[in-house]
Design brief:
Strand order of the largest sheet: 1-2-3-4
Bound molecules: zinc ion
Number of strands: 9
Radius of gyration: 14 Å
InterPro entries: DUF6527 (IPR045384)
Largest sheet: 4 strands, mixed
Order of helices and strands: HEEEEEEEEEH
Distance between the termini: 25 Å
Pfam families: BubE
Strand content: 25-35%
Length: 118
């Protein structure tokens, strides 16, 4: 039941390819990617917890930490995103949606706030 509610409330993100760099002001619910020669090498999004931080995700295998981005079905990141410092947000990004890990609190509220764009 809770899982079903989440899938209704949790909004889907847009996947946007940025030109040369990430925009100075990033829209919410958007995963930006930078690509060169058809190869995505960096991604960024505003933290879905609502803290307004920008999360930069390296997609290059020879740098750490590194995420793998599957662009199908709205985009999926491997592994999970975990901000151990600062807000402590920990989530999986799968098929364009944020799935909070079990250790996170107020997740329904966060999803609702994301959907309302605040
Ligand atoms: Zn955050």
């Amino acid at each position: 039941m809770l899982q079903r509610m989440r899938s209704i409330i949790g909004p889907r993100f847009s996947l946007v390819e940025a030109e040369d760099d990430f925009p100075a002001v990033m829209r919410k619910r958007t995963l930006y990617v930078l690509a060169e020669d058809g190869q995505v090498w960096a991604a960024a999004m505003t933290c879905p917890c609502g803290c307004k931080a920008i999360l930069h995700l390296n997609l290059l295998a020879d740098q750490r930490p590194c995420w793998h981005l599957n662009l199908r079905d709205g985009g999926s990141l491997m592994p999970s995103v975990w901000r151990k410092d600062h807000c402590g947000a920990h989530f999986w990004f799968r098929e364009g949606r944020v799935h909070w890990t079990a250790d996170q609190r107020n997740t329904l509220w966060r999803d609702l706030r994301l959907r309302l764009g605040r």
